[in-house]
Design brief:
The complex is a heterodimer of chains A (269) and B (289).
Chain A: H1 2-29, H2 48-56, H3 59-90, H4 96-107, H5 115-124, H6 131-135, H7 142-153, H8 157-165, H9 170-178, H10 183-199, H11 202-207, H12 216-225, H13 233-268
Chain B: H1 2-36, E1 39-40, E2 48-49, H2 53-59, H3 62-94, H4 100-112, H5 115-125, H6 132-139, H7 154-179, H8 183-191, H9 196-225, H10 228-233, H11 245-254, H12 259-288
Antiparallel strand pairs in B: 1-2
Classes of the chains: A mainly alpha (269), B mainly alpha (289).
């Protein structure tokens, strides 16, 4: 009896968190006239809302922009993060602790203070309306470095000493010895970075004004507020579905990794 | 000896990208923001030194205080709601039940989806005439609620939505915390005749206190960082009741091109966040001891 009650509460919770997404997808496929009373399935499937979205905004271009930006940033964070994490965990040099403390300090620095000056920097670099503005400032981040540092500290020094004796240099050690032994760290940092970059919208809104360079969340956010959807709910929901789908698909396959990655990064902060 | 020296150099080589990144994208902006707060500047023309005028303006700026009050309203609802809901579901998931993984994944779904999607979706749910929530209320024989049109309710509505989006992460974190409590603690307490509440208060709560602190801090930072939700849903309205800190910086900076004043706002909000988090830290640490 008690168990039944528990299950009931769990199922109710699942409905609360999942049903709105289900409704959104169904509504995006429903004829516009039905939206006001739709609760489960539409009477017929209509792609009209999607046709509208594709005819009004360059969704595919924005999708490719988002992919390019998110993949470049993720690659940068993995390469630089592991490089710096390696130096901070396994190499001795003066100033090492200072750099470590600076990294810790920058993590507690609210972005509100740097937002305006960083925009001005982009203007002075002539990076406004280029991919550089979206990629370069994000290629290194404190959380990535710290996670790699922590993971590398658990890797036995013997492994590295043996590689030195075999004549490996530091870059070979990093990419041939440490990387293959650090898959969990690579996956965690990779997923978090990709997801936060993919979902980022404030910075693109600030540094990108030309539609050709807009990321997908930016383009769709502007579509929702800019009146180009002309108040048509179906088109808005179709656009939102298109934006949600890549992450939802990735999440369905790798949900364990998503949950564990986000949880372990949450612990750090 | 030579080997050691090159090793040192390699260390510097490896951290050099960070040093460059730090100097260009963090240190310079922080220093430059300290310059900007004393200037009036629209980026195009020359900078004009105005002394403390930006500060004077800030302390007389109704909208600045409005955004602070809005953030406060958001946090007062968001933080307790987040903790209660997350603890409730974490406790449920901690009972040895089946399909635990499925439920956990379901609750986590809104966490991974873009805030833009969540906001557009909830804008519909909150719709006055045909929104799902009001349709449900009407079916139950209740009055429609002006979720986003009533100035007293709009910010709480956004807080509710943010809770729905984020709480999955905290369910997972609380669950990890609960699972780390050694079972013999509870067994010993049961032998001594402790009630459910006593077990929760004296065993569970102290052990998950770090997680609670994390929820409080992350939610506070989140509250001050609120942007896309009011940007899409309300534009800060009705009657500025959902104007958030970052939305106000954004408006001053990129609508009016008041770079000096926007930087001043950013500076004060950042200082406030650091202060609030520091106080929370002190407070929570005291609670533990």
């Amino acid at each position: 009896m008690k168990k039944l009650l528990y299950y009931l509460a769990l199922i109710l919770g699942a409905v609360v968190f999942v049903y709105p997404f289900f409704w959104m997808i169904m509504a995006s496929l429903a004829p516009e006239a039905e939206l006001g009373r739709l609760t489960l399935f539409p009477s017929s499937i209509s792609l009209h809302s999607y046709q509208q979205v594709f005819s009004k905004i360059p969704v595919i271009r924005a999708l490719l922009n988002s992919l390019l930006v998110s993949l470049s940033v993720t690659a940068g964070v993995l390469v630089f993060g592991s490089m710096i994490g390696f130096a901070l965990s396994k190499l001795q040099f003066r100033g090492r602790n200072l750099i470590f403390y600076i990294i810790i300090f920058t993590m507690s620095l609210p972005f509100q203070i740097t937002l305006i000056p960083q925009y001005i920097l982009m203007v002075k670099f002539h990076w406004v309306d280029t991919y550089l503005a979206l990629i370069v400032p994000y290629m290194i981040n404190a959380l990535g470095i710290l996670m790699f540092r922590q993971y590398f500290m658990s890797i036995p020094q013997d492994l590295i000493d043996a590689a030195y004796i075999d004549g490996c240099n530091e870059f070979q050690i990093l990419f041939r010895i440490l990387w293959p032994n650090s898959l969990p760290a690579l996956i965690t940092v990779g997923i978090i970075t990709f997801m936060t970059t993919w979902n980022e919208v404030l910075w693109p809104l600030i540094v990108i004004r030309k539609q050709d360079f807009m990321t997908m969340p930016q383009l769709i956010a502007l579509f929702a507020v800019g009146g180009r959807a002309e108040g048509q709910l179906g088109a808005k929901l179709a656009a939102a579905t298109l934006l949600a789908l890549p992450i939802i698909i990735a999440y369905t396959f790798f949900q364990r990794y998503f949950i564990e990655s986000m949880a372990s990064s949450g612990m750090k902060e | 000896m030579k080997k050691l020296k090159t090793k040192k150099l390699v260390g510097y080589l490896l951290v050099s990208p960070y040093v460059v990144h730090f100097l260009v994208f963090i240190a310079f902006p922080v220093v430059f923001s300290l310059v900007l707060v004393f200037h009036r500047w629209n980026i195009i023309g020359p900078m004009e030194f105005v002394g403390f005028k930006n500060f004077v303006r800030l302390f007389h700026d109704r909208l600045f205080f409005r955004s602070l009050i809005n953030t406060f309203i958001f946090l007062v609802i968001h933080i307790p709601l987040q903790i209660v809901v997350a603890l409730f579901f974490a406790e449920l998931l901690n009972q040895k039940l089946r399909f635990q993984g499925f439920f956990r994944a379901a609750y986590f779904l809104p966490v991974v989806v873009s805030g833009v999607v969540v906001t557009m979706l909830w804008q519909q749910l909150y719709g006055f005439d045909t929104g799902l929530l009001n349709r449900l209320l009407v079916k139950l024989g209740l009055q429609r609620v002006g979720w986003l049109t009533d100035p007293n309710i709009a910010m709480p509505s956004i807080a509710l939505m943010a809770t729905w989006k984020n709480v999955g992460l905290y369910i997972v974190l609380f669950l990890a915390g609960l699972q780390s409590v050694p079972p013999h603690y509870y067994e010993a307490a049961e032998l001594e005749g402790a009630s459910h509440w006593q077990k929760f208060r004296y065993i569970t709560l102290p052990l998950i206190n770090p997680t609670i602190f994390m929820v409080v801090v992350l939610s506070t930072i989140g509250g001050f960082s609120l942007f896309i939700e009011p940007y899409i849903m309300t534009g800060g309205g009705p009657l500025n009741s959902t104007l958030s800190a970052v939305l106000y910086i954004y408006k001053q900076g990129f609508f009016y091109y008041h770079m000096g004043y926007a930087a001043t706002l950013g500076f004060f909000f950042a200082a406030l966040i650091m202060l609030v988090v520091l106080i929370q830290k002190k407070f929570v640490e005291k609670e533990v001891a």
